[in-house]
Amino acid sequence: MTPHQPQRIRALIDRLAKLSEGEDWAADLNPAQMTALNYLSRANRFSRAPSHVSAYSGSTRGTVSQTLRALERKGLVSERKSETDRRSISFELTDAGEALASAEKEIDRVIADLPEETSAALEAGLENLLRQLLGLRGGKAFGLCRTCRHHRRKEDGGYCELLSVDLKPAETTQICHEHEPAQ
Amino acid sequence: MTPHQPQRIRALIDRLAKLSEGEDWAADLNPAQMTALNYLSRANRFSRAPSHVSAYSGSTRGTVSQTLRALERKGLVSERKSETDRRSISFELTDAGEALASAEKEIDRVIADLPEETSAALEAGLENLLRQLLGLRGGKAFGLCRTCRHHRRKEDGGYCELLSVDLKPAETTQICHEHEPAQ
DNA sequence: CACTAATAGTAGCGACTCGAAACTATTGCA
DNA sequence: TGCAATAGTTTCGAGTCGCTACTATTAGTG
Known about the structure:
The structure is a homodimer of 183-residue chains. Chain A is mainly α. Chain A folds into two domains: 5-103, Winged helix-like DNA-binding domain superfamily/Winged helix DNA-binding domain (Arc Repressor Mutant, subunit A); 143-183. Chain A has seven helices and five strands; from the N terminus they run H-H-H-H-E-E-H-H-H-E-E-E. In chain A, the strands form two sheets. Chain A has a three-stranded antiparallel sheet with strand order 3-4-5, with no helix packed on it. The first copy, chain A, has a two-stranded antiparallel sheet with strand order 1-2. The longest helix of chain A has 22 residues, at 116-137. The interface between A and B is large, with 57 and 57 residues. Chain A binds a DNA duplex (30 and 30 nucleotides) through residues 30, 32, 49-51, 59-67, 69, 85-89.
């Protein structure tokens, strides 16, 4: 355990991310587009607006606007205007978008092949790291609905006390932009 | 352990890398420049040429050429022409470059604060992942000199059997572009 | 030793991306 | 009703990246 460990770990994360990004180009998507597509594929129906993508990815609304437009041109997402708030838009993945988002990347296969102990420790460590870092910066966590303090379990899914809506079982494991850690 | 674990881990890596990149801009460096600077600060004296940065970072030589020129403009690196091979150049960090490369980023502090068990497991998992991935792609590992199969320990440092040179103790923990895993 | 191939690095171009600022439209607030 | 805040878009300019072509140097081959 040398004193340079933090920088080594940071370098590993950066390098792995770069290697993973490399695969995006094969699908004709730049990294920002792939990030948005992946986010949308995992976000719940209240969290699929441009501003949410913007908050998640850390880029401006203007940039995200262009990114989503590019995804739409490529037929991967489609926009749906809100009926309650006529300013807001929600993006949904098309079948092609779903296929692309759920496509297994080379790095996924490698992760899947790791010993379960290793991958579990890896996930826990990364999650811990992200939580600490977001805590320092006041950033939003975008955690899973089910782990939010506004979430109540029900026999057939869940219930969000913040938005006052029932949730299907599948929805409780999606990302929510309103997420606040339990407790 | 859901079936989506690989994608969750990939998303965590990507997001952490993005958050870490965000800090680069504070130093007036774009991510590519910060990657090059960090690489140069950790590479041994045989591994500081543009082509090595190119192989490490995965961008083209042309791009790296521009990146290094930007770093030179900012006074962070200085070039030194080789005497043996007049085509090749080696880049060294200036004092300002050293200072910037070794500056602690917010994410480093967070990593340093993790329980030792967690960070050790994290590093091991990430290294494992990188090794597997590079193995699949035939990419170079850029590992530490000391862990290379051409390295022999000596009482006062080490010796590289590939390049036939003696190594100071500090050099044995630097990155080498010729690195091949032991055994 | 000459000739060719390979390597190291650079230059210029074009496509694209990103962020900043200004803008429209809609909603909330007082 | 009027003003501020919010959601999203547009435009523009700086900068980046990869590609191709180029020079210079070194290695390989007969």
